Give the backbone structure.
Amino acid sequence: MNKKKLICTYFDENYLPRGLALIDSIYNNNNNIKLVILCLDTNTYNFLKNKYNSLTLIKLEDYICFFNIDQSRFTNRKEFYFSITPNLCIMVFNRNPEFENLLYLDSDVYVYGNLDVLYKEFENYSIATCSHRHSKLYKFFSNDFGRFNVGVNLFKNDVEGRKCLEHWKRSCDEWYPNKEGYPLSFFSDQIFLNEWPELFKDTFKEIENIGVNVAPWNAINYKIKHKENIFFVNDSPLIIYHFSSLVKIDDNKWNVNDGLAFFTLNKVLSELYTSYIRQIESYNLKIDKYAKLNTKLSKKKKIFQILSNIFFKNIIRINTL
């Protein structure tokens, strides 16, 4: 088996600056990487092709042709994007059968350390992912996003790993708008991960390293520290941070928690976000607001959102250097 690490992700032009930050963070902290990117538009493909010679790029039309995808069943682009992850993982494995493992990362995560610690935890399993690790207070207000987060997933190129990906793909393929029994008001492939511990009992691993997939929805659980140029989560080195729901408001102002999460900026988190924002802005590309999930907020969640805006610091100003 090939000891080189196989990693994949996907993004479009709107997320290109975040994708570039992810790519550079992987290469800066890890060696012996094969990184596969599904480019969701021509501009993204051309930009990456001209900037890097180390990437393996997949064009959107090749992906659609590979699976004979009918996009007409989706009511918007976000639904289509949310169906991609299991397909992309299957496609990458099929084109790279010599690799033992595949790591999928969302394009808005950032790698702060060597990924060997993650692979070490995974080595005796076929499937691994992170729970949201929601705070107890957050759990009271929201259960719309499932137990696990899709941002970091590992699959082994074996029977169980492939079976899991095929099951996930079928679940996504069988979804359609207003499907009876589907638990969410919007489409998300993430909800299907809830089944994995039961379906793949002996080969499924819930990632325990708290330095992996730290995010606005769980950061309140930890003491984030910064010493000797290393960020720590309690006493564990930060490996992957998920910069989800980060929105640019104006030229120098960002909302770091546009989603529904109990999250507040302190000095160290401000340093973390400022550094990331400066990096994605350093590519000198257009950064727009992203499309929000079309969720229907209950009265309880509306109250939560108001309280969050009042009592939590979520706005950060980035001064021009």
Observations:
- Confidence is low (pLDDT under 50) at residues 290-295.
